[in-house]
Amino acid sequence: MSKVVVLKHPLIDHKMAKIRDKATETKQFRETVSEIGMLVTYEITRDFETVPKMVETPITTTTAYVLKKPVVIVPILRAGLGMVEGIHNIIPSARIGHVGVYRDEETLEPHEYFAKFPLDIADSAVLVVDPMLATGGSASAAITMVKRRGATDIRFVGLVGCPEGVKRLQKDHPDVDIYLAAMDERLNEKGYIVPGLGDCGDRLFGTK
Ligand code: URA
């Protein structure tokens, strides 16, 4: 069974309060989502492996340590895009794949409409990113898409989760650890997380 980590940090809590507030406008919402993306990445990458590398400092030669694997960030379109800049800021060597998933209105099954990944995704540590882990359908489909390209080292990164989404992801992908900034109560009948923060994509991009 995968682990679920709800990241507790005063700065994350403070910034979550900002994005939950419906009075927060698009610019600040977008900037704050990005900042939280940066903070959660610091925690999520804590167990990444490093390898020694000889480095010449201005004074002498020393053994330094660098990340063992390349990192690939995979935002799920479109809300996932909001967290990419913050993550990329602290892992600038990361490449970025993209995944688009839509839900068939009749079968309710998620389908891939866009996928573009770096060639070495199979050897990389992959962060699949979507701020809202609601039903878990899109996240599960996106992870399946990444696995189909050979990736085995995958983490899911979100801001707000709920029991329904966590349960689905753990059932479909027991090998994928889940990292969240907050774990909320439930989904409502319209598929929104309660208390949540509303439609993250709309709030990021100023749409309705
Ligand atoms: N997607 C969102 O943007 N918000 C929710 O509450 C659930 C899914």
Automatic annotation (TrEMBL):
Control of this protein's activity: Allosterically activated by GTP.
Pfam families in alphabetical order: UPRTase
Pathway annotation: Pyrimidine metabolism; UMP biosynthesis via salvage pathway; UMP from uracil: step 1/1
Cofactor: Mg(2+)
Top-level taxon: Bacteria
Record-listed uracil binding positions: 193, 198-200
UniProt keyword Disulfide bond present: no
GO molecular function, one term: uracil phosphoribosyltransferase activity
Binding site for 5-phospho-alpha-D-ribose 1-diphosphate: 78, 103, 130-138, 199
Keyword rRNA-binding: no
Catalytic activity reported: UMP + diphosphate = 5-phospho-alpha-D-ribose 1-diphosphate + uracil
Phosphoribosyltransferase domain mapped to chain residues: 6-207
UniProt-listed PANTHER family: ADENINE PHOSPHORIBOSYLTRANSFERASE, URACIL PHOSPHORIBOSYLTRANSFERASE, CHLOROPLASTIC
Protein name in UniProt: Uracil phosphoribosyltransferase
Annotated source species: Paracholeplasma manati
Gene it is expressed from: upp
